[in-house]
Amino acid sequence: MKKILLTGGLGFFCTRFFDRYKNEYEILSTDKDDLNITDEKKVYEAFEKFRPDYVIHAAAIAVTDFCNKNPEIARKINVDGAVNVAKACKKYNSKLLFISTEQVFNGNIQSGPYTEEDIPVPNTVYGQNKLEAEKLLKDILDELWVVRFTWLFGLSDRNKGIASNILWETITSLIKGEKIYASPHEFRGMTYVYDMIENIVKVFDIPYGTYHIGSTNDMSRYDVVKHILTEMGLEDRIDEILVKDEGKYKDAPRDVRLNTEKIKKYGIVFPTTKEAISKCIKEYKLNFK
Prior knowledge:
The protein has eleven helices and twelve strands. By secondary structure, the chain is an alpha/beta fold.
């Protein structure tokens, strides 16, 4: 049985990954309390003991505002921590899958979807951290997959991590009785977390390199929320609940969509964001009509 070491093990992605694959791989799921990735010695000790075949490095501080306000802390974890993991992978012959982000394109002026050949221009500390880590890891390792995720979405599950995402935010606002403000000038791919989990291990069988992965999406954020409400059977309340935020991103539309044609050539294919949202709502039986 192949061994996988997970960092960020208590997070949104890794808690679900562990449950899905715990009987197919021997998995060591680590988080900050049991593996401080900023401590190079501790990282080596963990690798020496477990000897992973694969490492999925998901540990990061991904909250944009926190990173912008605390750049030194963010860099220590997002960059230095990733470098420590990569060095250990090299020493112990482990293959590394590094989870990066669409946000490396957050400062690009041209519209997406972006290919792997487009030059990223990140304008947030988090995006800058991830891009810097990508480059440093490539200098350390040959056996490396850099996988830029689109925005993951999903719902809260028992004993599993949750992260801010379009579907959870919409439902939370409904519970609180708050109006939902969404921009028609913001575009990004949004991927159902369980679709990502089903596809991610396929990356182990493709050539090393940088890949964009996840669902494609032609809808604005406003239209995505509208679709969520419709699928939940709340179409009659859309005008009451949803506010089109025309001002946000009007002068500089935000488009961080990723072109996923490269990874599709290896048979790694996702439903569209629209299809994935419908699937998720159906699986959780969230249609209230």
